[in-house]
Amino acid sequence: MSAPARPADPERPESPCIGVCALDDDDRCLGCRRTRAEIALWTRMTPAQQWRLMRELAQRAPSA
After folding, report:
1. DSSP result, 4-62
2. What is the DSSP letter of 3?
3. What is the C-alpha separation between 17 and 60, in angstroms, rounded?
4. CA angle, residues 19, 63, 18, in degrees to nearest 5
5. 7-59: pLDDT as tens digits
6. Residue 48 in contact with residue 55, Cβ under 8 Å?
7. Which residues contact 51 (CB under 8 A, 6 or more apart)?
C-alpha cells in the first residue's frame, strides 16, 4: 500500500503549469505564460512571490 499524498501547502498557490511546455519567441511558456526564468525560480520563490506572479500571469495576454 502506498503512502497518502502530502497535502499541498495552503500558503502556496498550485503551480500554474498546465503541461503545455513550449516557449514562444519572447521566451514565455505557451501554456502558463511564465518566462523561462520564472519557471526555473518557482520552487525557490516565497509564497508571497508565487502569489504575486500568479496575479501577474492573470494579466498577461495568452501567447499567440
Report:
1. PPPPPPTTSPPP---S---B-TTSBBTTT--BHHHHHHGGGS-HHHHHHHHHHHHHSPP
2. P
3. 15
4. 15
5. 567 799 999 999 999 999 999 999 999 999 999 999 999 999 999 999 999 99
6. no
7. 13
- CA 50 to CA 6: how far, in whole Å? 20
What is the distance between the alpha carbons of residues 46 and 11, in angstroms, rounded to a whole number? Answer: 10
User: Is residue 54 packed enough to be buried (19+ CB in 10 Å), middle (13-18) or exposed (0-12)?
Assistant: middle
Q: Which residue bears the cell 500568479?
A: 54
Of 18, 17, 13, 21, residue with least CA distance to 50: 13
Q: CB-based contacts of 39: which residues, under 8 Å, 6+ apart?
A: 17, 29, 32
